[in-house]
Amino acid sequence: MKRKTIRELPFHLMILPGFLLVLVYSYVPMAGIIMAFERFVPSKGMFHSPWVGWKNFEYMLHLPGTLSVLGNTFFIAGMKMIGGIIVPVTFALLLNEARHRLFKRSVQTIIYFPHFLSWIILSGILIDILSPSTGIVNGLLGSLGIPSVYFLGDPGWFPYTLALTDVWKEFGYGTIVYLAALTSINPALYEAASIDGAGRIRQTVSVTLPALLPMIVLMSVLSLGNVLNAGFEQVFNLYSPQVYKTGDIIDTLVFRIGLENANYGVATAVGLFKSVVSFVMIGVSYVLAYRLTNYRIF
């Protein structure tokens, strides 16, 4: 046992920095949950502020926009989840058919690049591109005789703009995951299908998609845990008061209540509610992942 511990010591030391970061920034701040049950007064601190019990949660549930914010969060996150599965799978299938190695790797690099850019950078780019007066997108629409669309200012268009831009940013990462899964398919299956007279499309339907199905199910199920994470950085950098009706999500509501209005107790209650629901969804997603694809962490 002692010899095994010594042999594995370098691996534990490698994990230590990440463990400390998670401990300091994720677990230590959990002490602040107590503010959800207090009328928090900064001068008195977390442990001496007046205790109000469940009143912050009652206030949260009676806020005029609470239900619409919940609906927006589920709607936007749901669109991102669906697009985050369909687009990468489709693109991976198309890219897998490319035979020119340099072209294939170049395309992978290009589509993967936006994944590394922050939403602060991308939001500035998107605001210029989608501008109703000077944006290139509306310029193209105008050349086709289509009226300009205020993508970031029209409540009807804003949720779909969020979903499309998020899929554009992240689908390169998903494509690489599915391309890696495609490499594990036995070539003999394609040879057998070819002998039976199946063309490329039929091979994709009968061989490739069934082989990818476990990975698709796994990625779909695991994404359920993030259903309430509709993307604070993206929404915060792109939204405005005129699209609050359809673009406001739980995280932006917490930001406004807590930091802009200094109502820390209610903001903590909203955040705690989201965390509890997310915890339940993550538990359900892992149970489904184990039942459907035999995936397990431990």
Automatic annotation (TrEMBL):
Residues 70-285 form the ABC transmembrane type-1 domain. PROSITE patterns: ABC_TM1. It is found in: Cell membrane. Keywords: Cell membrane, Membrane, Transmembrane, Transmembrane helix, Transport. Pfam families: BPD_transp_1. The chain crosses the membrane at residues 12-37, 74-95, 116-141, 171-190, 211-232, 264-289. It is a multi-pass membrane protein. InterPro entries: MetI-like, MetI-like_sf, UgpAE/MalFG_permease. The keyword Transport applies. Its main location: membrane. The keyword Transport applies. Belongs to the binding-protein-dependent transport system permease family. This is ABC transporter permease subunit.
